[in-house]
Amino acid sequence: MADAFDPVPADQFTFGLWTVGNPGADPFGPRVRPTIPPTEIVAGLARAGAYGVNLHDNDLIPFGASAAERDRIVAEFKQALSDHGLVVPMATTNLFSHPVFRDGAFTSSDPRVRAFALRKTMAAIETGIELGAGINVFWGGREGVETDAARDCRDAIKWYRECLDFLCAWTKEQGWSQRFALEAKPNEPRGDIYLATTGHMLHFIETLEHSEMCGVNPEVAHENMPGLSMVHAVAQAMEADKLFHIDLNAQKIGRYDQDLRFGSEDVKGAFFLVRLLEGTGAYPGYDGPRHFDAHAYRTEDVAGVWDFARGCMRSYKILAERARCFDADAEVQQILADNHADPYGVAPLLSSYSPAHHQAILDLDLDPETLSQPGRRYERLDQLAFEHLLGVGV
Which DSSP letter does residue 21 get? Predict the structure, then answer.
């Protein structure tokens, strides 16, 4: 029976071909599910209520396909999108599977490999544009090392910058309005991956020639693997107006990259993330697609894959409703208002330097013993978040 949490295209939920198409293989065993053709994935996502589908170039077009084969596949895929009313908001390039990228793509020590990576990426961008994608994600899966004897990190960062500057300039020359979203990850499959966190990426972007074209694509699992906060990473990206895309999934801290169903781990973290994205607090929300970069358990058959997809979307909508209730709670609002109160007019003095502000701060009565007395009621605030999350008393 349908309810308010069933997904609809207006929710802007998207999945990658590689997510629902994951056949359940892992390093210890082969695939357990049949391959689902891309056109069938489009049909299944439409039935599930999704808005769109994203792809790596080789999710759709086999590596080394002829131009004629490529054109036929793209035409069939475009027809499926039209038939089922789905869009392609984002495209990306597989720069990690083929052995040519075993020592990186944009950071390979061999300039010929870097040139090949550029050529492959330009072709992928062209395919994405043909399918309507306005965003290109860059995940540097092999951009790293097992030993720092291999190269100086500064060389790798320079080569990475050169390739992105080249792609930005080429894209602008074509007259395309593309946005590039850089995706960080600390490790796996390399021992260490360059630009390991969203914070690393945000700094790196500011060194690019066309930084206005570039933002980030944070992923829950990639931030949580080393125990970092996805909420803080996304908030920093939003504050910098650089959240161009997002990958939603779930992850146990300290494990390999699990890509679990969204909301299936760290439910409170997922709650605060959705609250941030939906803008139910004081700031505007995120207006882009909500992309699920996850896959079904290896235990599942094809029917279980669609249970997984629906579960991701329903979990997001449930969490969004819980976030709205939390932020509408009068007690929550009062606690936050009390903590942010400025009865002495101090905040404006901190907003910018001037000699007058400097003197006014020196003249303030700021007794640390007095200032340390009030409690902040964060225990109560967190308990309220927990109770709203579980639907208690609502």
Answer: T
Q: Which amino acid is at 56?
A: H
Per-residue pLDDT reduced to its tens digit, 69-78? 999 999 999 9
Task: Could you list the beta-strand ranges (E) of the chain.
Answer: 13-16, 52-56, 90-92, 135-139, 144-145, 179-183, 192-193, 214-216, 247-248, 290-292
Domain that holds residue 381: 330-390
Verify that 372 and 270 share a domain, yes or no.
Answer: no
Instruction: Give the tens place of pLDDT for each residue, 217-272.
Output: 999 999 999 999 999 999 999 999 999 999 999 999 999 999 999 999 999 999 99
- Round to whole Å and give the CA distance between 200 and 237: 11
Report, as residue numbers or ranges, the catalytic residues.
Answer: 56, 59
What is the helix, strand, coil percentage profile of the chain, to 5?
50, 10, 40
Residue 101 and residue 183 in one domain: yes
Structure tokens at 329: 């709670």
% of the chain at pLDDT higher than 90: 99
**Token pair recorded at residue 165:** 């500057």
Query: What is the distance between the alpha carbons of residues 104 and 286, in angstroms, rounded to a whole number?
Result: 32
Angular region, 111: left φ>0, alpha ψ -120 to 50, beta rest: alpha
Residues 368 and 287 in one domain: no
Residue 394 in this model has a pLDDT that exceeds 70: no
Task: Count up the domains in the chain and report the number.
Answer: 2
Q: Is residue 4 part of a domain?
A: no
φ/ψ of residue 292, rounded to 5: -100, 110
55 and 187 inside one domain:
yes
Omega within 30 of 0 (cis) for the link into 38: no
Q: In the 8-state DSSP scheme, what is residue 134?
A: -
Q: Give which of 214, 140, 147 is closest to 183, Cα–Cα.
A: 140
Model confidence pLDDT, tens digit, residues 76-125: 999 999 999 999 999 999 999 999 999 999 999 999 999 999 999 999 99
Q: Would you call 120 exposed, middle or buried from its count of C-beta atoms within 10 A (0-12, 13-18, 19+)?
A: buried
Question: Hey, what are 174's tokens?
Answer: 């074509």
Q: How far is CA 176 from CA 92, 157, 208, in A?
A: 16, 26, 18
Per-residue pLDDT tens for 180-191?
Answer: 999 999 999 999
Instruction: Give the span between the Cα atoms of 321 and 278, in whole angstroms.
Output: 10
What pLDDT score does 283 carry?
A: 94
pTM: 0.97
